[in-house]
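Quick entry between incubations.
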Amino acid sequence: MKESIHIKNLGPIKDIFIEDIKPITVLIGESGSGKSTLMKAIALFRWLYKMHNIRSYLKRSKVSKSPFRFRMDTYFKNCGFDQYLKYNPEITYTVEFPNQKKYTIKFSNNKLIGTSDNDLIQLADLQYSKLSFISETRNVIPLWADKGASLSGGYLGFYFHEVYNDFALASDNLKELDVSYLDLKLSVKKVQSEKKYIIQGKKDKYEIDFKNSSSGTQNAIPVSLIAEHFSNHFDFEDAFNRTLLKFLSQTDNITDFKPVKNLGDIQKKLYIHIEEPELSLYPDAQCELISDLISKCFIENTNEIELIFSTHSPYIINHLNLLIKANDSDKLIDGAKIPFENLAVYQIEEGKIENLIVQNQRIVNTNPLSDTINRIYDQYAQLK
Amino acid sequence: MKDLLMTSLVAHYGLPVPTTTNWFIQTVEKYFEIEDTDAGEILLHTTRGLGMSKFSNQNDLDVTIINYDKFITSIQSTPFKNGRQRCDIILNTNDDKYFILGEIKDRSIVNKNSQKKVRKGAKEQILASLQTIYAVPEIVAYINLKTRKLCCYFNKQSDSPVLLNATTAFNRLPNFYPDGFQMSKPDIEAFGFYFFEYTGEQTMTLRN
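Done. Structure below.
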């Protein structure tokens, strides 16, 4: 299955086309260049495609009345795209199967095309997916989790609550998480009716509340916990059944439902999107976090995962080359390796995209993130 | 190519004939480096480390290096020159093989752009140069005879103070791959050219 996306006139994005979204896609670019916009647009259209799959499944299972309508104005608002609407954005998302069957969802002239009853997904192509968007607001999670119910009713934005929900779900399933790259362990304990998150130092044997841990720990643990949960512990069947039940209960015609296919026969996929996994981490830990993430998502995983993350870190981009080389040498670095063919690295600049994969070698061109250090010492040399 | 610039390009754009001198160099040296000076001249060096772009020419190809920036700058036509981006050099061999547009990053470029955009600026200058010369049918016909059409960004590696290894540490990757990096650049590829980036010791090898 091949995904492509073409985005025009969406905020900082002028015209970006990704012909084949690879299993590991990395975005670099200056602040405000459009990395998050691109990632959010991809996540939104993956979600629309997911919902179109659910609608197609229900329709093909004799549920004639659609249980939901797509409300692009709400979705755009959630993404922070509502102010871009006046510039007439255009987004085309296409999924192509090996049998050359294509499904296209397009937003153009303020209308969504490709999700009608005439566009239903064929039985053989049905997919059930789960998306996670680990936003940079994840550093609020420890405080939010600590306050628990006392903060209920508060709203910190769509993406915070998305990542918080995934964190809460993950910590329901995982009571302990070994975070070797920070030399510590997360423990989730039940205290009365509430969860308590404890950080334990493995070497120094200290124990502190998650909310009092270092900023690097607070940023990194949600990434590792959610990745571990989705890669190995996410229960597709439970999620699928809950989704079906939710929508069937809204249609009032549950008796009409004649499941056309079992979940076991439907393709399943998890999509993880992460804003700047390296936040607040020392360079060594940044690299080890990436190895940990790759290991969880692509080496030790039981669920099939696609990963997109943005970064400003030259260390991470260079570390990707090490993981490519590890794969080519049939070795693991901190439990990780990356097949060159599965990786894409793009630089976003002035609304356009540039592929940083070197065409005549099996590496990523890391020079754009090395230029700063060269510039510093060029200027240094000029000061007599 | 230098004659085509001086006659066909000038005629195509209706420009006065430039009277500039020392705007091209010819060489058959087996190894040479090109320096783009702050004064806008290009110098040829055969000693390693003196230039900003490195060429290996083991087959003794007859190479002409045109100071394209100087040529354009010398044209006495403000409307033509103003805002017209141009790359530093055009390098071609006196056979049917190489036609290369090159942009050489040096410290003066860093100054000009104050902080950033050097890399992007280099590619834009190359692309703009392609657009300028591709408007001239005689030049297009000449380029079409060439089998290796390249656009190159020569990204000189900087030095840091002796006690620090920051610049060398951040620039180690090119040491593993001496032949330059071919990057995807659809705007340039649309002209039938490939885009390469050379950093530090990476050397453009002119092959038979």
